[in-house]
Amino acid sequence: MKQKIVIKLGNGGNRYSSKAMKIAAGVSGVESMTLLGENKDRIMVIGAGIDAVSLTKCMRKKLGSAELISLIPIGNNETEEEKIEAIIQYPKRPSYQYPSWHYY
Predict the structure, then answer these.
(1) 43 near 4, Cβ under 8 Å?
(2) Max mean pLDDT range (15-19, 53-57, 61-65)
(3) Which of 3, 62, 67, 87 is most buried, judging by how many CB atoms fall within 10 Å of its CB?
(4) How far is CA 30 from the centre of its chain?
(5) How far is Cα 65 from Cα 88, in angstroms, rounded to an integer?
(6) Gene3D superfamilies in the record, alphabetically (predicted)?
(7) What is the distance between the alpha carbons of residues 47 and 67, in angstroms, rounded to a whole number?
């Protein structure tokens, strides 16, 4: 599922923002990154399957200070019809039939 993560960076200015972009680019599942705010002190990361806590910890370790501001799931594009079709396409269990042996 896609999610939007906003992380507040330290007061280092341009130096912190460029390092944060490099760190976020190295995480698997990231689709886009943008800097937010007047001072470019927040980074918004959009992607699927990103662990927000580990990303924040990594930035905190490399930059000195980072704070997770928000984590918002972005709507799933899968419609109800596609979900129903996926359920129907699962193979059904074969019903076991006992052999018809006749005992005399």
Answers:
(1) no
(2) 53-57
(3) 3
(4) 8
(5) 49
(6) 3.30.70.100
(7) 19
